[in-house]
Amino acid sequence: xxxxxxxxxAQTYPERSITMVVPFSAxxxxxxxxxxxxxxxSKDLGQQIIVENVxxxxxxxxAGRVAQADPDGYTVLLHHxxxxxxxxxxxxxxxDTLNAFEYVGLVTEVPMTxxxxxxxxxTDLKGLVEYAKANKDTVxxxxxxxxxxxxxxxxxxxxxxxxxxxxxxxxxxxxxxTDLLGGQVDIMCDQTTNTTKQIQGGTIKAYAVxxxxxxxxFPDLPTTTEGGLPGLQVGxxxxxxxxxxxxxxxNERLSKSLQVALKDPNVVARFGExxxxxxxxxxxxxxxxxxxLESEITRWKPVIEAAGQYAD
Length: 312
Ligand code: MLT
Fold this sequence. Notes:
It is built from eleven helices and nine strands. It is an alpha/beta fold.
């Protein structure tokens, strides 16, 4: 009967508001992407999607919350590449990454920017590398905890310059940005969805983008390759997940709604202003996200093992 009830509910889904868990603080890049997508999906679904920020442990606390939620389609997770890296970084995760979720689809892939407090002396990436090496005992690098995109990019930066630096973890790069603006922390690698406004406003310094090509929003900002760090390329893909056991019809309905949202002119325009583009219709599907997560776990495992940085 419960199976029948579940599939019957799937036909009338959604009948009430949906919680979208964002595993980082409000005001950060993940939150920005989530609120834009949630607002548009709400219109298509005819039910409110309420964003709930569950920060901590580099995004794994929020992911764990959704892994434990009822598989009824009323709790979803919007998370990024950290879903893949955490599978290697955390030896004691509260969930089994490849068996605790169902898949809805990919949302966007966001480039990262290497930025600093505006009065840091170096004027280009080569100078920043020299500065970091010369001041390795005092330079501080902000991130959103082990498993965050900012942590991954910071780890790649330290590996590339072969110099470990002091990291300062926050519950999201929203609050980290506040300290960068205040000069309490020196550098950060963060997504353009969080740094674009500050770079354009000149309130932080930008050294490079981690994309293969320069960005339309920052035509004068060199790539890491141009700045002498060709290995420092990373794009922060985001996906929407539901708890294991959520009916396939529900995941499909959510995927259809996500595909509509990613074509919403307001979402497309806002993503463009923030240096990113929506995923394609074909990528905003359960199969595409499943394949992406599996391949990314495999891809980043050796990079993380080479850096030797794990969550205790
Ligand atoms: C991260 O650094 O992984 C997150 O993007 C931080 C955030 O969204 O606040």
